[in-house]
Amino acid sequence: MSQLKDHQVIVLIGMPGSGKSTIGPLLAKTSLRDFIDTDLLIQARHNRSLQDIVDQEGYQVLRQIEEDVLVDADFENRVIATGGSVVYSDAGMKRLASLGPIVHLDVSLAGLLKRIHNYESRGIARRPGQSLESLYEERQALYRRYADITIDCNNSTPEECVDSIIASLRR
What we know:
Helix content: 40-55%
Distance between the termini: 13 Å
Structural class: alpha/beta
Largest sheet: 5 strands, parallel
CATH architecture: 3-Layer(aba) Sandwich
Number of domains: 1
Number of strands: 5
Radius of gyration: 15 Å
């Protein structure tokens, strides 16, 4: 783990259903860090669900709230699982990039279609009526733009993904 100490923060980005909330705690435990999920920070700060924010105020408000959380929160010595829409915020991504490596958990569209069964009610910051397919295409370019490391999570267990992340960080 000594080589990983160079990275005080490890940031996980990816589509909803990519495994950030599952892999994050495992990575935190393995790398001797705390875990934080920015979606949970948003919900705690606003005392309501992400879906409620989207339904009442719109997806753009949720994206702004997410940016505010990213700019304000203390993330020292943590693994951070971000919301899937984090990549729409240049200010938020610059902040995260200043803290440590950004790891994209990459899952194919076919894989996401198998994993996500509550797309309409999951609290995803997307345009009204936007399909998962359209959202996936839109975000993939942004994930690639900001990622320092991309981990293929299609046919791997969460533990195998953690091993791949650690191996990549040691390089």
